[in-house]
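hey all, quick one before standup. I had two proteins in the batch that finished overnight and I want to keep them in one place so we stop losing track of which output belongs to which input. First protein below, input sequence then structure tokens straight from the run.
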Amino acid sequence: MSASDAALPRVITESIGGGALARAAAGEAPPPFYAARPSSAGEWAERAADVRRRSSPTWLDTLRPAFGASLGGTAAGERLARSAGGAGILVTTGQQPGLFGGPVYSWSKAMGALALADALERATGMPVAPVFWAATDDSDFAEASVTRVAIGGEVVTLRQAPTAPDGVPMAEVPLGDDVPAAFDTLMQGAGSAAFARAWDVARAAYLAPGQSVGGAYVALLRALLEPLGVAVLDASHPATRAAADPVLREALRQATDVERALAERDAAIRDAGYSVQVPAVAGLSLVFASDARRAKTRVKISDAAPVAASAPPGSLGPNVLLRPVVERAILPTVAYVAGPGEIAYFAQVGAVAAALGADVPLSVPRWSCTLLEPHVARILTRRGLEPSDLAQPHAAEGRLAREALPADVAATLAQLRTAVRNGIQRLADADRPDANGRAAPLVPTAAVDGARRSLEVRLDRLERRYAAAAKRTATEAMRDLAVARAALYPEGIRQERSLNFLPFLARYGPALLAAMRESATAHANRLVAADEHAAAPRPAQPAASR
């Protein structure tokens, strides 16, 4: 049986969650810190036409090298070509590198952008291409060097040791000698997977001699996304850096104005009752310059003008608040598909764009999912659980353990609770006349309440001891829960934000990506207002950032 013949996971659409600002921005009436989100197919067509009119018709000629030599002849290349020359627009999303491609959400972001591009193309009649911005210029090695895989009922953390000084972009950080062993462990997490190409492309990307963290990430993304129609742009490529250079130098020349605009926006965000996603650092611009160690350092505002005049071409880079402005300046991006943390900081991005006289980028909430695999679904059915029951640590285990108590023990404990509650109440009701002949408590109420609390605590402790004993005997149920929890809420974190995607792809093949794309379509249609009757996504635990 091939991977494509296997029963696929159920793709469950989730809310992306996030903080109060992200939730408000993703709602129907975003706060006034954001570019206006179109609310109908007609409004999307108007925005698309405006973006197309305000973008360079030669953007693809300029950036073609940054999309890689593998683009030619692929579905991604064909979609880009149709959108170039002023004919169409782009939907973008992105992520910094993650070990072996990173967690599920990197791929659900890509599928969400693809589905939105499809929906906008249907709604506007314009060519729309999806682009994944691979942020290989990011220097967060702590995040880029870690991924997780569920093996049975355990969550195994895979980690690469540092191979470069702090602050070096991932495009220049070499993969370590420990990566092959981590790759072998990752493969164990897929079991007897049938889709061998997943491992072939991952091996070619991550075990190639002399490969960097960022380079391996880009190679893997391109191998798997380009056939689906998603182009991958390397943010560290010289072509990208050259195209971004004028915006970065302008941000340095206007660093004082940008700082002032951000301070005003941050104050407005706080006055509206929200938290600022990216705190200001006094005296620093939003531009990075590379030092002699190749590490990135923020340019001081006091040095901004001379750096703008003298920095070598390609040596500058944007921080998180400037990057969306740069992207919109060099690409005809109609919308950026954003996670909750990104949506929150887009409230500040608008102020940066306005200070620079640049177009204000538009963010839309990304599609989010949980992959409920057949064997995990069987466990949940067998144990009478829903996926959300595993969101709270130990709650499901405690419930099953209590249910495993012998009926007579459970009944006796319940009777004992009732007897204590009723007995305490009768004591509390016992009165005696006071000196004036009025009814008064025989014993102070506080003493009776204290006794009640003490007895309830002792009963809770006794019940937990019985439950623990039952839990030890219910080993099969606990093993089932360990497998389900590792698959859905590893270490208490939503699957999408924790588990590596490659084992899923290896088990189910391209049909899994097709199922994700199909599930993302309802979300995309809601964003384009092409399917007003689509079911709303079910609520989920808040996601932290992406």
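OK second protein, same deal, sequence then tokens:
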Amino acid sequence: MQNRRRFLESTTLAAAASAVSCSSARLTAVEDSAADVMIYGATPAGIAAALAAASDGDRVVLADPTPRIGGMVTSGLSHTDFRTFEGLSGAYLDFSQRVLRHYASTYGEKSQQAADCFRGTQAEPKVNLSVFEQMLAERNKIDVQRSLRLDGVKMEGDGAGRRIAAVSLAGATARTITARVFIDASYEGDLMAAAGVAWRVGREGRNEYGESLAPENADGQLQAYNFRFAATKDPANRVTPVKPPGYRREDYVGVLPLLADGRIQRIFDYPSGCIFKAQVPVLPNGKYDINDVSRSAVRLSLPGENTGWPEGGHAERQRIFDAHMRWNTGLLWFLQNDGAVPDKFRAEAREWGWCRDEFAETGHLPPQLYVREARRMTGMHIYTENDTVHAEGDARAILHPSAIAVGDYGHNCHGTSHEGTRFGGKHTGEFYKSVVPYQIPYGTLLPRDVTNLLVPVAASSSHVGFCALRLEPIWMAMGQAAGHAAHQVAEARSTVQRVSVPKLQERLWSAKAATIYVSDVRPGDADFEAVQWWGSLGGLHGLAPMPARPGQRGENLSGQYYYAYPDHEAGLGRELNGATRTRWMALGAKMGIGEVKGETRGEWIRAARAAYLAL
């Protein structure tokens, strides 16, 4: 544990302290460098942004305060949150396909490991790390800098024309990075805050944006955090958990009545009636992603204990990290070792342990805390619950013509406060709302008054809206869009507010990234770009009525995963007639593409696309 303590002190699980809140800071740098695009935070979104900008020809510096890139996807969150495979595209789809190829080439295409990776979306943390490293290594224009925390930001200009001139980073060596465009891909929004961009922490009141899931009154409550452990029952790879520093038996005895009265049936299980949620499907090589159990009498997440994280300096974030680690690991140690625990529960708990081949440098424990929510930018478009509702009478969600990404998960909050004791009490502020696939407009990435900064993670949103955006595949999609947008800005020496959204969308489609959910025309299909173009103009709205139950999903596939959302297909082989033909002709006329002929939907869209490109 001493080695682990030294590691945490030197690397800063969240060393991007908000002590950088100054608008200008000077640092004697050992090394200065210039880039077209500088990205702070090598989260999956940051990696996607770096790959996108580099693929467009930009020189990129990607800096992270920790020694391990990949954010939560390489720190225990292996059981990726999405609803349907049809909702995955772009950078995340590329990543997952590479993961699948890794397991197929390493173990065989028909191996159990290849099957268990769930088309590459469910992988061991070490494999996710290896794949991200490989993707970055393929781009020689990306300079990856690890263990460098944000130390200061130099600003230029004033008012609505302010811009970031340089970013100072501190670590074993100090660096000052100048760039034309900056991207804050950190979970906390540290660069955004240091640049003086408006942001918010906490919940809006219900009347502020008219959100049904919001509380009556605004408050400072924050969605709870916990760790995502990599655990196994395999004796050959199992490491026995140890008693954490600061362990106190009295903190855990309250679980005993819950074991006795039947409210807890098992220690590890899915999805409820347990203490540690062992996510299914199982990961390759017998590993499990361990998470907090929603609406349970025992929680790993600790709402209220994390409120100091978003604005906290390194010491404060370290204190919060340690408190969560002590609670999460101490609970398991108690269940495995305390004589008061009934034999059947103690025996079951002892079947589990940490994975010997994961997180070796941090005692086989995750190096990052799952920061579900921290700062949220107050930007050009504040994403709310209202952005995910059905269009009037339509199977689809409301249309965002400026969309740069899609999501299909829904609003998900693990709680923002707690009533009663830790054992037997309950989280409040918890919600899980099903919605149909939704679009995310470009303005969600944009600050109002800094002209060369994009924020794809701590994005502009309400608390409720953020709870639909906060999933890694969605963040990767937003990061990819930020990277391609940054190239436009750098190349034209313009501003992020003046980016051509149609041009950005075209670049995203060429990179197999979706801006609208289409279940039957997938990335790589010959018609993908044409269908994305037409759908993003509104052509696919009005094809099916709103279902009897809002947010209707397809049939369950496994666990939290489903088959495609119904009534979200383009149906290219269907005859084009009646009201749909009339509406499409009118929309085409608005685009200035004149008379278009086609007997089927597919023929018409292809002809319309060709006419548009010929303009």
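Flagging for whoever picks this up: Residues 1-29 have pLDDT under 50 and may be disordered. Residues 314-337 form the longest helix (24 residues).
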